Amino acid sequence: MDYEIVIGLEVHAQLLTETKIFCGCRNKFTHEPNTNVCPVCLGQPGVLPVLNKKAFELGMKGALALNCEIPPRTKFDRKHYYYPDLPKNYQISQYDLPMSERGYLDINVDGVEKRIGITRAHLEEDAGKLMHSTDSSVVDLNRTGTPLLEIVSEPDMRSGAEAKAYLELLKLTLEYVGVSDCNMEEGSLRCDANISVRPFGQKELGTKNEIKNMNSFKGVEIALQLVAEKLFDATKKGEKIEQVTWGYSIEKQKIFKMRVKEEANDYRYFPEPDLPPVEVSREWVEQVRATLPELPRAKHTRFMDEYSLSDYDASVLMQDKPLAAYFEDVAKASGNPKDSANWVINDVAREMKERNISGISAFPVKPETLAELLALVKGNTINMPTARALFARLVQGETASPKDIVEKECLAQVSDSGALKEALEKIVAANPKQAAEIESGKHQTAMWFVGQIMKEMKGKADPQSVTQVIAERFGIDPGLLQKKK
Amino acid sequence: MELTSLTAAEIAAAVKNKKVSAREVVDAHLARAEKHNPVIGAFLHIDAAEARATADAVDARISRKEPVGALAGVPVALKDNLALPGQPLTCSSKILKNFKPPFTAHVVEQLQKADAVFLGKTNLDEFAMGSSTENSAMQLTRNPWNTDCVPGGSSGGSAAAVAAGFAPLALGSDTGGSIRQPASLCGCVGMKPSYGLVSRYGLVAFGSSLDQIGPFARSVEDAALIMNAISGPDRRDSTCRNTPAPDFTANLNQGVKGLKIGLPKEYFETSGLNAEVKAAVLAAVDALKKEGAELVEVSLSMLDYAVPTYYIVATAEASSNLARYDGAHYGHRAEGTDNIIDLFSKTREEGFGSEVKRRIMLGTYVLSAGYYDAYYLRALKVRTRIAQDFAQAFGKADLIASPVAPETAFRFGEKTADPISMYLSDIYTISTNLAAVPAVSVPCGVDSQGMPIGLQLTAPRFGDDLMLRAAAAYEQVSGLRNRVAPLQGN
To answer: Which of A401, A403, A477, B52 is at a distance of 20 to 30 A from A433, taking alpha carbons?
Structure first.
């Protein structure tokens, strides 16, 4: 019998609000422990939560970007469990009336499109952070009350690769709309998985295993793979599948058993009496929807249609929204989208990486400047080596425009055959050995002459004209030389 | 002039007109409290220095001819589940014995703005769970009219403080009758405002969807005066109504002529209703009729379901609200545990009294998977029916009149062995909390032992001003106004 693996993901994304979800404390937890706290997020006796409207709107924006529907009425509920990082010993979350439901993301794995359903996305408060040493544990409550959007997928994924693709697109989408910075390593995006195995064609899900703390994309793929293998093995041997919760160690790239559940946790959910239900008017939803930017997949399609970019180039640019915007500025200013994409994806990306520039906004070369450089190449004013050298100077802080530099420093390439012929004769006269070689039919030596002429012309020679002059001088078919190149 | 027999309105006027200083007023009340509190046990904690300092500041402003608030120099007692920085906030529980809040309750801020003077914190049933104040982990509070009897509860300390003349005003909280029942048993005015009229910010939660803060006073006018100070919007409480509160004193002398007063027949037919109480309440209703009110019979047929429904809703919320007391962050922490679960368990085992534990267990049970639908969800449905009952009754009547409690003050220990009999002392008060409507207890006589009896008037939600107007009209004809209990060794 053949089996399939069934995966659903639960993702928690911290929302980028100024203040916490139910109090006025700053939503920052890089500060000294327990400094961004107040009686409300500390769960002191007698305090009450007040919903942060911005957090609600940001959650709605994220949900709309995930194609979710926003019901007209939603409420908050209390979820109870005892843990020292949860000062009230209940978390304000949403149970049966989430703020959004029935969304989806269309992923693409190896060229195959697939729609992954999103059951719901709801708001809740984050817990604090426990830190353990050998003899004690301490708690930092700065993170307590950070707004979270919990996004629950349908069990629609059938492989680790699909799960990874879904998570990547989810992250990108939330980044695009600016609701979360989605840093998995720092925990602003957290992913848990439900995984089970069943015979092909069977409708019911197999016994569920859970995986917690896969705080990297690679971790998600590896951990799912490892658990899937265990489930396949057990199923094939006819063993009963236990309901296990697994942890994942990023250092060891290994999974470990956290607990085996006998029955589901009883969180004793009930409606939060301190927060009235939220009525969400259609106008409000449309106002928030109107603030949505172009989403990743739409941008991908548009780049292919509008700029005739390859699937690959469009994908690379889609991954980085600011870089994509930079590309568009260069493309529009230069009227040359193909070369703009090449330069942005290769040269700009490489320089950013080498110089540890984290975002395109900090990149010293403005799009108009790069467009000007591209136009100089396209118009044959300068050759590629000159262009690259110029680009390097711009990156290093050169402020003059490429056009001015070319003019001032006479960097325009020389394609005047008179000057090139003169240079070639000089080289032939000084190097009879090489001249004899090429005349005897050793065409490879032509490259040596190209190099010499370039040197003579201080790198400004137009490579095509140089080849032409050499071909003529030695009576070679220029096509042969072009090919050698 | 006996300062401790003045009403709040009289004190504020006298202080403003410099007939007496706020300091003299406060000293007189502190002296009476310091003399009699050891027997009465109304106060858990008296902060005399702070009270005198506040009074002096008020006097200084008056001497500089600066404006002062409506309650200038009026001593107020606070139930010890309201946050006042610098003073303990114990809820009469061992688990919060040494807890001092770093923030101020909304009502406390409002009273500070009105230039009231806080004398201290009053005793209550632990976490406001009880009807006799016997569940306090700290001390007994005695009924000032008979010290062998309970003052009622859970706000027994506040009721006793006002009845004993320690303070003309006090605040309490009412989740199922915790203001009205002790007011009735101690012979003072006690009001539970409409849910959402007074911000709960700074009130330690018991049953969040039921809790309201409200006043104790010796006159309806005084209750209206303090309601003016504490009512109205507060953005820190999302369940608090967002529109300004009316002036509760404005129409107090408009009488009841033409008002329809409903008598819920079920309330007068309950087997536990004491005959003297019934007679006094019916006589009070007759007096209102003589004043021009029209009496109509109404039906509140869900009465029998009120107590069971309440003990599901209130305990469910309490089990959640009290989950935070675990010793990890503040309050009592058990010694000698070596893991977090034991720390939580032992802290709660040591810190909570038996009634609180009973209610936490009840509430946990009714919210548990498999029982939620049968208990909690069903209780919510009954709660809706109870609210509909009231809506229907208020279709026929402007106000509803009833007893507050089935009996007058009982003796210590009489009901402690049987929680159900204790729970039934709230049978007439609980429905109003479930329906979110306001109700007030006003004195309407005494029984053959001289123990006070209260009349309960209930209004539609946010009809609090009309309710106080009728209460004032009744007080006018009954003459049962500003009665201070004559304490022994006076």
So the answer is: A477
- Say if the Cβ atoms of B102 and A44 lie within 8 Å: yes
| Complete DSSP assignment for A223-246 | HHHHHHHHHHHHHHTTPPPP-EEE
H helices of B301-459, in order, are 303-321, 340-351, 354-367, 378-396, 419-423, 430-435
Tokens for B469?
């107007």
Collect all residues with Cβ–Cβ distance below 8 Å to A343 and sequence separation of at least 6.
A330, A370, A374
Which of B92, B93, B173, B178 is catalytic? The answer is B178
Residue whose token pair is 């309650």 = B71
> Does residue B142 form part of some domain?
yes
Range of weakest confidence among A400-404, B84-88, B133-137? A400-404
The residues spanned by each domain of chain A are: 3-289, 296-409, 417-484
User: Do residues B74 and B116 lie in contact, with contact meaning Cβ atoms separated by under 8 Å?
Assistant: yes
> What gap in Å lies between CA B277 and CA A31, rounded to an integer?
63
Answer CATH for A417-484 from 2.60.40, 1.10.10, 3.40.50, 1.10.357? 1.10.10
| Residues 6+ away with beta carbon under 8 Å from B350 | B94, B95, B332, B334
Phi and psi at residue A90, to the nearest 5°: -145, 150
- Which site among A44, A88, A265 would you substitute to test the B interface, given the most B Cβ atoms closer than 10 Å to its Cβ? A44
Three-state SS for B206? coil
pTM metric for this prediction? 0.91
- The answer to whether B214 touches B231, Cβ cutoff 8 Å, is no
Alpha-carbon span A435 to A419, nearest angstrom: 19
B21 is annotated as an active-site residue: no
Measured CA to CA, the distance from residue B436 to residue B462 in angstroms comes to 9
Q: What is the pLDDT of residue B490?
A: 47
Domain that holds residue B165: 3-254+467-478
Exposure letters B123-149 (e unless 16+ CB within 10 A, then b): bbbbbbbbbbbbbbbbbbbbbbbbbeb
Q: Which A residues 133-152 touch B at CB under 8 Å?
A: 137, 139
Chain A touched by B96 (CB under 8 Å):
yes
pLDDT of residue A263: 62
Percent of chain B with pLDDT over 70: 99
Task: Please state, in angstroms and rounded to a whole number, the distance separating the CA atoms of residues B12 and B7.
Answer: 9
CB A432 within 8 Å of CB A481: no
**Chain B stretch 291-330, residues whose beta carbon is closer than 8 A to a beta carbon of chain A:** 316-317, 319-320, 323-326, 328-330
- Residue B217's domain is classified under what CATH number? 3.90.1300.10
Residue at B8: amino acid letter: A
Tell me if chain A has a CB within 8 Å of the CB of B179: no
Our answer to whether residue B381 is catalytic in this structure is: no
Look up residue B194 and give its DSSP letter. Answer: P
Residue B92 has pLDDT above 70, yes or no: yes
Instruction: Give the burial class of B271: count Cβ atoms within 10 A of its Cβ; 0-12 exposed, 13-18 middle, 19 or more buried.
Output: exposed
Is the previous residue joined to B402 through a cis bond, with omega within 30 degrees of 0?
A: no
Residue A72's contacts (CB-CB under 8 Å, 6 or more residues apart) are A279, A280, A281, A282
**Is the pLDDT assigned to residue B400 strictly greater than 90?**
yes
Would B325 be classed as within a structural domain? no
CA-closest candidate to residue B284, choices B16, B471, B420: B471
User: Nearest CA to A227 among A199, A203, A202, A246?
Assistant: A246
In a domain, B32, yes or no: yes
Q: How many CB pairs under 8 A join A and B?
A: 102
Q: Are the C-beta atoms of A175 and A183 separated by less than 8 Å?
A: no
The answer to whether residue B435 is domain-embedded is no
* Annotation says B194 is catalytic: no
pLDDT of res. B489: 64
Burial bucket for residue A129 (CB in 10 Å: 0-12, 13-18, 19+): middle
